[in-house]
Amino acid sequence: MAEEQTVNRKSRVGTVVSDKNDKTIVVSVGRASRHRIYRKVIRRTKKYHAHDEQNQATLGDLVRIEEARPTSKLKKWALVEILTEREVARVAPESIGQTLVEEVQRSAAHAAEETETDAESGEASGEQGTN
Questions:
Q1: pTM for the whole thing?
Q2: How far is CA 6 from CA 10, 11, 101, 116, in A?
Q3: What whole-number distance in Å separates Cα of residue 16 and Cα of residue 26?
Q4: Domain 11-84 belongs to what topology?
Q5: Which of 30, 38, 67, 108 could form a disulfide with 9 if both were Cys (CB 3.0 to 4.6 A apart)?
Q6: pLDDT: is 41 or 120 the higher one?
Q7: Residues 57, 60, 63, 67, CA torsion sign
């Protein structure tokens, strides 16, 4: 009676395309197959909704999911492991050009001058109407 039953579960490797839902990720799994007649390689993708209990996976991660009992209408897969996390681009402050900074400062100063001249012209027109 103490025999262990091994369960053969399907597993897929794919990329997380959405992690907006709580405890749910959407994983896009791609496969390539040859056309029956023309022998051209056809690339197909399919999206799977998978259960992510700790909300570990983020957008762009490469993950392994495994077939599980249905958790909801769409979720029939569960997250097993995160193979690689997405690469986050690091932008160094030196990469922003000095000319861009000066241009932003000039446009801000120009906008401030326009608001001052509008306020002054509004006061001048208000004074003329009272005399």
A1: 0.63
A2: 13, 15, 63, 77
A3: 6
A4: OB fold (Dihydrolipoamide Acetyltransferase, E2P) (2.40.50)
A5: 67
A6: 41
A7: positive
